[in-house]
Specification:
single chain; 400 residues
């Protein structure tokens, strides 16, 4: 039977859980640079790419589980709410159900997706992509960080190269709560955002191959400066973003690395990371094609060769209509101010949506600030959506 609408989560307990989480891997004041790699009676398992699952048994454990969660890793200057609200919010749902002694018909599982941010190992949403069958697990294990660390070896070192197989099992549904990472909800004083779809997004990692030479005597026509080629690509990417900005498109020159990257010598190789996104899928595809062409053009101009090492894509109209309606219905029943939104960022839900019905819900964050140590959300911002999460999870898990 459904739990009464008057029942809600323990907001103070949830806040203390968030604060306790924020003590692990502190960075700048208030921040959390926690790069990738139980008292509620949960069975915890870890799969071969480090995804963590905490299972709360149901009345019929043979039924596929309802998944709730997000990720715990952050950006290098990350905050304490991005991703973490989704995992800890799911944990608070489990604890609230324990308080009520309510056992759902289907099991509930909390998921923490490894390396969602892609801040240490590229690409983002790496482990959820493996779980959904988008990426090969052995390929993922070989992804390398700037310091030479390999994710498979790092997972083994910290004892999170789990024994569980990656994906390949039936799921009832997945629901991911997340801070908005935008200012609409905060500005409009809306408590719950229902995600309709995500921006269609593409990301690229391009590598340019040149040749070292002394910068003083080496003539301009002989130069093969890989750093120059990569820099020109990123300038082209920024221009593409401005060309599509009127329609809401954006392109980001995200990262440039090179070797030797020293004064007095031309760089032998360089890598450029960029991404582009648009609410209209065809527009996003055009932006991506322009980047592909730019890679070859800037390489030729600098006398270099180039390879696109990685291309990743996600987004579109991927969320389940029934689950979207469920979120809207519970928000209205609980008296929450709510509205529909689209997401411009990437989330684990984008890959989970390929294998099971999926929905997302946004909570407000102060001034829309995210990926920053001052990222903030008060209990008055979080509690309404957590109560929607509670009732939505019970409704889905108890249905006949």
């Amino acid at each position: 039977m459904p739990i009464p609408l008057t029942v809600g989560v323990n907001a103070q307990r949830f806040r203390s859980t968030i604060e306790r989480s924020a003590e692990v891997g502190r960075g700048r004041e208030g921040g959390l640079p926690r790069l990738a790699s139980s008292d509620a009676g949960l069975e915890v398992k870890v799969d071969r790419v480090g995804n963590i699952f905490a299972r709360r048994s149901g009345q019929d454990d043979s039924l596929p589980p309802v998944l709730l969660g997000s990720h715990l890793d952050t950006q290098a200057n990350g905050g304490r709410f991005d991703g973490i609200v989704g995992v800890m919010g799911a944990f608070e749902v489990a604890r609230t159900l324990d308080d009520l002694q309510h056992v759902t018909r289907r099991p509930l599982e909390i998921i923490n997706g490894t390396n969602e941010e892609g801040a240490r190992f590229s690409p983002p949403m790496l482990a959820s992509g493996c779980f959904a069958g988008v990426y090969d697990t052995d390929w993922a294990h070989k992804r390398q960080a700037d310091d030479g660390a390999v994710i498979g070896e790092e997972l083994r070192r910290i004892s999170y190269l789990g024994p569980e197989p990656v994906g390949g099992r039936e799921l009832d549904s997945y629901f991911e709560p997340h801070i908005e990472q935008g200012s609409i909800l905060d500005a409009e004083r809306v408590q719950v955002g229902t995600l309709m779809h995500g921006y269609s997004s593409h990301g690229f990692l391009a590598k340019f191959h040149g040749e070292t030479a002394h910068t003083s005597p080496w003539s301009m026509e002989k130069r093969r400066n890989a750093l120059l080629a990569a820099a020109r690509l990123l300038v082209e990417v920024d221009g593409i973003g401005w060309d599509f900005a009127v329609g809401g498109g954006k392109a980001t020159a995200a990262r440039l690395s090179a070797w030797p990257n020293k004064a007095g010598i031309l760089s032998d190789w360089a890598q450029a990371t960029c991404d582009m996104r648009h609410d209209i899928p065809k527009a996003a595809d055009v932006m991506a094609e322009r980047v592909r062409r730019a890679v070859g053009a800037v390489a030729s101009r600098a006398g270099c060769t180039a390879d696109i090492l990685d291309h990743w894509a996600w987004g579109g109209r991927i969320f389940n209509d029934e689950l979207i309606s469920l979120v809207r219905g519970h928000a209205a029943a609980l008296g929450c101010r709510h509205r529909d939104l689209t997401s411009q960022a990437g989330h684990d839900a984008y890959f989970l949506a390929r294998i099971c019905p999926t929905a997302m819900m946004f909570t407000p964050c102060r001034d829309g600030i995210a990926h920053h140590n001052v990222e903030s959300a008060g209990l008055e911002d979080l509690e309404p959506s957590l109560n929607v999460l509670l009732h939505r999870a019970v409704s889905r898990a108890d249905r006949r």
